[in-house]
Specification:
The protein is mainly alpha-helical.
Length: 132
């Protein structure tokens, strides 16, 4: 009976580990999208290069942080918090940097991606916080 409980505990632990990886893996994809968004959306309509540069810099940062979390999840929960803060910046950037009215697609994308990044960062942090 004891061996059965240990086997079940190992299986549960592995399932939790796999589920905790999923937000990080999705964050990699979201970061890649954000990095490519200036090529697809109307970032140039803002008359500024800042929206595109911001998206590329934040997108690459998210990709790197998420990859580190996926490849070495133990003791990296602070990286999920940093990713969440990058999501908060994406929500604020169009208004702080003044391109919200000049580039609606860039603004909508930054807000949508910011919300997704925050949610995924929270799931990633909570998943690893419980078993790290």
């Amino acid at each position: 009976m004891n061996a059965h409980v240990q086997t079940a505990a190992r299986g549960t632990r592995r399932l939790v580990d796999e589920m905790a990886h999923t937000p990080g893996e999705v964050l990699v994809l979201v970061g890649l999208w954000l990095t490519s968004a200036p090529l697809v959306l109307d970032h140039a309509k803002a008359g500024l290069t800042y929206p595109g540069l911001n998206d590329v810099a934040v997108g690459l940062s998210i990709v790197v942080l998420a990859l580190v979390r996926v490849l070495s999840p133990r003791h990296t929960s602070v990286l999920a918090v940093i990713s969440g803060l990058l999501g908060v910046w994406l929500l604020a950037a169009p208004f702080v940097r003044g391109y919200a009215g000049m580039s609606p697609a860039a603004t909508a994308n930054d807000i949508a991606v910011g919300l997704v990044v925050i949610l995924l960062a929270v799931f990633s942090w909570r998943g690893h916080d419980k078993h790290a």
